[in-house]
Every structure is written in C-alpha cells, then in structure tokens.
Design goal:
With 504 residues, the chain is mainly α. The protein has helices at residues 2-20, 26-31, 34-62, 85-105, 123-141, 145-163, 169-200, 205-211, 216-233, 242-248, 251-261, 263-276, 279-305, 310-321, 323-332, 337-371, 382-385, 387-401, 407-421, 425-450, 464-479; strands at 66-69, 80-83. It has a domain at 315-499.
Length: 504
C-alpha cells in the first residue's frame, strides 16, 4: 500500500513540477548578478528537462496516462493535470529545445558587459524564457478547457515581448500584430469554451468527449476554438503575423518561437479533433483542415523562395512546414491501421520540424553576426566564416526537404504511405511538391554560402560553441530519421478508446 501511495505521490510531483519548476529561474534573475543569473537559469532549464524525461519514462513504464487533480478535487469541480504519450513526447521535445536555446543565449566568455550583440541577452529574455517554458508545459498537461485558456494567455504574454527585445520600431510593430492575432484567437477560444460549458456543464476534456454530439452548438464551439488556434498557429491564411515577428526577433527568441511556441495551438487542435470531437464530425472537418494545410505548404514555400533575407526565408518556411501537420488529420481520423502510421508520422514531423527550425534560426543568427547582415545575395563565402553553422543549417534543411536520413524523411514517408493506402492521392502530391519547393529555398542558400566570394569578407568573430549548439539540434532532427518505420506504441498511450484497435 505504501509503495502504491509513494508511486502516486511521485507522479503528482512530476506533473506539478513540470509546470512549476521553470519558474524557479525567476528569483536568480531578480537577485543575482547577470552572468550568475544566466547560469542558474540554465541549470533550472536542465532540471526541467530531467523532470520531463522522468515523466516520459514513467508514462512509458506504466503504459498508461499519468494524472493528478489539484487539491484532490476531481472534475467537474476540480482541475486535473494529465500526461499521455503525446503530452510526454511534447514535454521532452520542448524541454530539449528550450535548454539548447538557453545555452545558445548565454554570455560569451570575455564579452563586454551589456553587449547583447556579442552574446548577452537582456534579463527580460531569461524571464520570458522561463515563463514560456512553464506555460507550454501547462498547455500540454491541462485537462480542462479553462485552464488551457489561462495557459494560452500566459504563453501569449510571454511570447509577444520576445519579438521586440531590441526595441526597434519594426519589431514593436511586428509584436503588436502578433498580439492582435493572438488576442483574436483567445477571444474565439473563450467563446467556444463558454458554449461548451453551457451545453455540458463541465470543461473537463474527458467528460465533454464522453457527452459530446454533433449538435449545432457543439459544432459552433469547436469551429470558433479551431479558428482561434489557427490564428495563434499562423495557419494560412492567418499567417500574416508570423514572418515579421519571427524574422525580426533575436536569433534565440526566433528559435524558441518557431520551434515550440506555435506548436501549442497545434497540439490543442489535435486534442479538439482527435480526442474531443465525435468521430463523424472529425471525419467531415478533417479535409478542410488538410486543405488549409496544403495551401500553407504551397503558398508559404513559394513566398519563401522569393525572400531577400535569410531569417525571413526561414520564417516563411515555418508558415509552410506547419501545413504538413494539418495534412495528418484526414489520414488519422479514419478507422484504419494506416491512421496509426499517419498519427506517428505527424508527431514525428512536429518534432523534427522543431529541432530543425531551432537549428536553422540559430545558424542564420550566427551568419548574420559574422557578416553584419542576413541578405541572401551577400552570403557568398559565409561557409568559410562559420562552417559549423552552415552545416547545421544544411542538416536542418535536409529534414525540411524530406531527404534521408533526416527525421523529415521518415515522417513524410509515413504520411505518404498512409495517404496512398487510403487513396488520398492529392495529399501525397502536396507532400512531394512541398519537399521539392523546400529543396529550392534551402539549396539556394547553401549554394550561395559555399561559393567563393568576389572579394575578401570582413568577418566578425563569433562564439564557436554556439555553432555547436545549433549543430546538436540539427543532428537531433537527423537522428529522428533512424526511428523504425512503424507506428509508435508510446504515442498511443492514453489515447481515446476508439483508437484501441489501432494500438500496435
């Protein structure tokens, strides 16, 4: 009995700790000298990563979702935290990316005090990083719609200031645009939550899923919440805020925003349509989501090809690449063994995209720091100045193109296989076209960077260890390419009962 109680308490501590622990970085930032505060903050990020790994190991060992109820109050009155396989997967992915971001943002040894361009980020960055970490973990673990609303608002108000850390006018304008889109999404989400509460008298996702039917009110609620999340995720045509916001932010902030922040609303869309919605309704709506995803891939990739600046190219690439996650919906909602492969492929693409985009934004920041600009036309010879950063950029681009052995390749093979066997040929065609377009803008940059410059470059020194941080993230994205080409049993832990027959 005591062993069971101790195990339950350990599970409760992991769930609560995943949300609370990142905030322990805030006191050092307020009380300690800047350099010491940075290092203490990175230690907190490392501790949070270890908690995420422990939680994932616990979920995997138990083979069941881990849950706790705050204060012992169960729904519909209480607030629950729950980690299934997908949540644990997202927690670990986020923790690794944000820990690497913290390392990348640390002060370069020997840098002059106050010189942000040489490596030191302002204290506000570290506070916002800790807040983003905590808010993301709450999104992945919260079990009721109102707690999710609170988590989304915390995430918004921590992420928006990251866009304008340098205080430039263009950054402030981009941050305000981001804020308007995010608030628009929040209003629609809250409207949907209010409708659901009026219909079912609870906001707990599991209880609502049991009672839900395709009534007009429930359809309206899910539609409002979905459009709100699309605005926050920058899905075409609601993507207009993303390129200026992500391209104008400092490299460490851009890496964080593009890799993990926009994954939170996508995570919730998966919850809405694969966990919450009745199967018939999900099957009817999934082609619409996939159509928007296809448009995002094609339009975003074409616009990326025409960009004159490197960070802007990567930002439009982000708007394109999230479209693949929406192609998953028609493939994953059908009652077929191939939906298990599509679900695994979508989750794998989400993770490989996060690591590759973080690596590419960091590499682009190092190239700009070395050259003093990020104009694509002036990148000739940058491969000699920051060779490791260029390799990181190229490996990240390899995953975006879907070439072996990168994670993007395995993810797209899974999605392609499911699309072909489910006769969704148009999805297969979009996946292939998106890979070719990604190859166009990635190879455009790499080809220029490898050229011999017409005249000697005036190169500023950069911290080599930062290049290795970017390369490590790119190698993780490549490493996903070695996972088995089969459905992942871990991602099925705690999934709805309707998926039981599809669990490998």
């Amino acid at each position: 009995m005591s062993g069971i109680l101790g195990s339950a308490l350990a599970g409760d501590m992991l769930l609560v700790g995943a949300v609370i622990l990142p905030l322990f970085a805030l006191p050092p930032l307020l009380l300690a000298p800047p350099r010491l505060a940075e290092r203490l903050s990175v230690l907190v990020l490392l501790a949070s990563l270890l908690v995420a790994l422990a939680l994932a190991a616990r979920v995997g060992a138990d083979g069941a979702a881990l849950a706790t109820f705050i204060g012992g109050w169960r729904p519909p009155l209480g607030v629950g935290l729950r980690a299934d396989g997908f949540s644990a997967f997202m927690l670990v992915m986020t923790a690794v990316v944000l820990f690497a971001t913290g390392l990348f943002a640390m002060t370069t040894p020997g840098a002059a005090p106050g010189r942000v361009a040489r490596g030191r980020m302002p204290p506000a960055f570290w506070m916002l990083l800790a807040s983003v970490f905590s808010a993301l973990n709450l999104v992945f673990l919260a079990e009721d719609l109102f707690t999710l609303y609170v988590a989304l608002e915390l995430l918004t108000f921590a992420a928006v200031p990251l866009v304008c850390l340098d205080g430039k006018l263009a950054q402030v304008e981009a941050a305000l645009r981001y804020l308007l889109f995010a608030l628009f999404g929040s209003v629609l989400y809250l409207l949907g939550a209010v409708i659901i509460y009026g219909l079912y008298g609870t906001l707990d996702i599991i209880l609502v899923a049991r009672a839900a039917s395709a009534s007009p009110g429930f359809v309206l609620a899910l539609a409002a919440m979905s459009v709100g999340m699309m605005a926050k995720a920058a899905l075409f045509p609601l993507h207009l805020w993303l390129p200026p916001a992500h391209s104008g932010a400092p490299p460490a902030a851009s890496a964080m925003l593009s890799a993990v922040v926009i994954k939170a609303p996508i995570f919730l869309l998966v919850r809405f349509w694969l966990d919450l919605a009745p199967t018939g309704l999900a099957v009817a709506v999934a082609p619409v989501l996939a159509g928007l995803g296809a448009a995002a891939i094609l339009v975003g990739s074409l616009v990326a090809l025409a960009q004159p600046r490197l960070k802007l190219l990567i930002a439009y690439s982000t708007a394109a690449q999230i479209g693949y996650l929406f192609l998953m919906f028609p493939l994953a909602v059908v009652a077929s063994p191939w939906s298990a492969l599509a679900w695994t492929g979508g989750a794998l693409h989400l993770a490989s995209h996060a690591f590759s985009k973080a690596a590419m934004f960091m590499a682009a920041g190092l190239m700009a720091e070395a050259l003093g600009h990020d104009r694509i036309s002036g990148l000739s010879g940058v491969g000699r100045a920051v060779p490791v950063a260029l390799v990181a950029f190229g490996l990240g681009g390899l995953s975006l193109m879907g070439l072996p052995p990168a994670g993007g390749f395995i993810a797209k093979v899974m999605l392609l296989s499911a699309a072909i066997h489910l006769d969704a040929w148009w999805i297969a065609a979009v996946i292939l076209a998106g890979g070719l377009l990604a190859g166009g803008y990635v190879l455009k940059v790499v080809g220029l960077a490898l050229q011999r410059p017409a005249e000697p470059l005036a190169v500023r020194p950069v911290a080599r260890w930062r290049e290795w941080v970017a390369l490590a993230l790119a190698l993780v994205a490549v490493g996903f390419g070695f996972v088995p080409l089969e459905p992942s049993s871990f991602l099925f832990i705690g999934r709805p009962a309707s998926w039981a027959g599809l669990v490998p």
